[in-house]
Amino acid sequence: MWDAEWRERTWEQLHAPWDLIVIGGGITGAGILREATRFGLRTLLVERADFTSGTSSRSSKLVHGGLRYLKNGQIRMTYESVRERENLLHTGRGLVYPLGFLMPSYKNDKIPGWIFHAGLILYDLLAFKWAHQRYPAQDMQDRWPFLRQEGLICGYRYFDAHTDDARLVLRIIQEAVMDGGTALNYARVEDLLRRNTGEVCGIVLRDQDPACSERVVEIEAPVVINATGAWADEMRNMIGGHRRLRQLRGSHLVFPTKKVPLSRAISFWHPHDQRPVFIYPWERTIIVGTTDVDHEENLHSEPCISAVEAEYLMVAARYAFPPLDLNLKDVLSTFAGVRAVVDTGKEDPSKESREHVIWQEDGLVTVTGGKLTTFRVMAQDALRAIRHLLPGHPPLNRKHRMLEDPPLEALLDIDLDAPDRLRLLGRYGMHAPEVVAASERGELESIGDTHALWAELRWAARSEAVLHLDDLLMRRQRLGIVAPKGGIPWLEKIRTITQSELGWDDSRWQQEAEAYTQLWHQCYSLQSE
Ligand code: FAD
User: Fold this and answer.
1) How many CB atoms sit inside 10 A of residue 210's CB?
2) What is the distance, to the nearest Å, from the Cα of residue 247 to the centroid of all Cα atoms in its chain?
3) pTM tops 0.90, yes or no
4) 473 and 482 Cβ atoms separated by less than 8 Å
5) For a pocket test of ligand 1, which of 228, 287, 297 has the largest count of ligand atoms closer than 8 A to its C-beta?
6) What is the pLDDT of residue 300?
7) Disulfide: which of 91, 115, 118, 209 matches 403 by Cβ 3.0-4.6 Å?
8) Helix, coil or strand: residue 216
């Protein structure tokens, strides 16, 4: 699909007539591209950097119903999120997995256990299932002896789900492209075209491939959607829109499982400010998150965890698991993301609403906020808002599958364990058999202790629109987060497999390897290292 020539080909075809241009290649843009192509609209998605390089690869990776919205009486929103979670679990097997949560209840907790229990009953009812359970204190002590016991009253189990956020976005984009959509990464919108009336009618697009940065084209379309997340105000600013968004950073610490032997998620209240904290297994690591602070740094630099945030999360982890004696030196990696919320000036950032918004200003449609889990709801709301501008007024309904059925039978004869097979199907969908077919001897083995296979690197380098090494190691694969030292010790082997697929000479490889190493040390590890 994205072979060696696709980028050139795509630039040559940008003058095709479009019904819709989507700016931003995160989950919001991907969802809109997917839904729009499903309804036969000629849709172009453009992304300034790599697909999903914004917030959508830096989320907590939970596909969740939003239990905490219940506390604010937002039942419709919880219902919607729970339904989307169930749908993703159903159609995204191998990519979206159920995740059991345990919420210990302590004396002096902000929310008494019985209120939480009532919330869980409602949560289950909204999902049409009965999965929550109460554990008495003794049971909790027997099963999770490393958990804080002081003041423990009981515990509650409930279920949500987790995913690989970057792969989810990529799969949605790939399925949209197979359905006739066009998506281009490393293509930045540097201005908006306007009619005499002032209405937006297109974009000015600049190539971000260092080899072609002089390439600029103007592209017209009756509808332009701004799905640039935390950058949405920048785009609105091009047509004189005033600042409406507040950028909040959430950061995470990642531990190796040998330091935190957890097979399910734990959620509890932070001892300092009573914010919810989650500690959960993900891709053979343990993630602790998240913070919620105003992001005052330059939005065009990679977001990083601050020392204060690292300490805040460390306090939480030590509080939850006193016997594990956790230390900042145990941290495997870190990552941070920035979300956009509508700025209402609340003192506590966590009190700002997480709901998505759709604004139409001078023909520019901005869709932002919301969450990964509800991408389809956002996409359909956006298309509904602009439907009157679209040729033929396409019908919108949710009766179709969110993700296409992968070819289960195609991998049956492959010498892989069933969970690995399922994982390939989930991550690569229709392309899973090609990933296996492209593999060379020994490449169907795991990379170190991670779930990833060497073959996935070859496939991604060959066919997944990789332009820089961090595209490959941070988002096509997640070695930057899950591997010791971000996978840097394996760079020579990675080079053997991928350099020729990428078409890079030795000096380009060297340059990319140095840039990746620097990026990892600056933004994905603790700076004290
Ligand atoms: P982004 O993913 O940021 O995409 C916007 C894209 O626009 C970027 O890739 C950017 O490069 C591109 N862009 C910007 N300017 C231009 C331009 N000029 N031209 C072209 N492209 C441009 N949700 C959940 O459901 N579950 C979770 O567990 C969860 N955890 C979260 C944890 C944190 C810390 C944060 C911050 C959010 C979390 N969310 C979660 C919310 C979810 O991650 C976000 O709502 C979602 O990723 C936003 O997606 P987006 O596509 O709107 O923005």
Assistant:
1) 9
2) 17
3) yes
4) no
5) 228
6) 94
7) 91
8) strand
Residue nearest to atom 14 of ligand 1 (CA): 228
Whole-number Å distance, alpha carbon 46 to ligand 1 midpoint, is: 14
Q: CA geometry: angle at 209 spanning 238 and 171, to 5°?
A: 85
CATH 3.30.9.10 boundaries in the chain = 100-159+246-350
Ligand 1 centre to CA of 370 (Å) is 9
**Residue the block writes with tokens 């490959």:** 472
- How many Cβ atoms sit within 10 Å of the Cβ of residue 308? 11
Amino acid (one-letter) located at 438: A
Nearest Cα residue to atom 52 of ligand 1: 229
The binding-site residues of ligand 1, defined as CB within 6 angstroms of any ligand atom, are 23-29, 46-49, 53-56, 59-62, 64, 188-189, 227-231, 250, 290, 337-339, 368, 370-373
- Residue 79: CB atoms within 10 Å: 19
Q: Could you report the average pLDDT of every consecutive run of 10 residues in the chain (529 residues)?
A: 91 95 98 95 97 98 87 84 95 96 91 87 89 93 92 95 98 97 98 96 96 92 97 97 96 97 94 94 97 96 97 97 95 97 86 89 96 96 91 75 88 87 95 95 96 98 98 98 98 98 97 98 82
Q: Kindly give the distance from the C-alpha atom of residue 27 to the centroid of ligand 1, in angstroms, as a whole number.
A: 7
3-class state of residue 65 by DSSP = coil
Q: Whose CA is nearest to atom 42 of ligand 1?
A: 371
- Which of these, 270, 255, 318, 263, lies nearest to 101 by C-alpha position? 263
The CA distance from 238 to 358, in Å, is: 17
Atom of ligand 1 nearest to the CA of 235: 18
Nearest atom within ligand 1 for CA of residue 291: 34
467, 49 Cβ separation under 8 angstroms: no
Residues of the chain with CATH 3.50.50.60: 6-56+166-244+353-389
As to burial, measured by CB atoms within 10 angstroms (0-12 exposed, 13-18 middle, 19+ buried), residue 179 is: middle
State the chain's maximal CA–CA distance in angstroms.
73
Residue 301 φ then ψ, to 5°: -105, 155
List, in sequence order, the alpha helices (H) in 92-214.
113-126, 137-143, 165-178
Calculate how far, in angstroms, residue 24's C-alpha sits from the geometric centre of ligand 1: 9
Question: What residues have CB less than 8 Å from 414, skipping those under 6 apart?
Answer: 421, 436, 444
User: For the structural domain made of 6-56+166-244+353-389, what CATH number should be given?
Assistant: 3.50.50.60
Q: From its phi and psi, is residue 73 left (phi > 0), alpha (psi between -120 and 50) or beta?
A: left
Helix (H, G, I), strand (E, B) or coil at 507: helix
100-159+246-350 placed in CATH 3.30.565.10? no
CA 427 from chain centre, in angstroms, equals 13
Instruction: Report how far residue 381's alpha carbon sits from residue 294's, in angstroms, rounded to the nearest whole number.
Output: 28
What's CA 181's distance to the chain center, in Å? 21
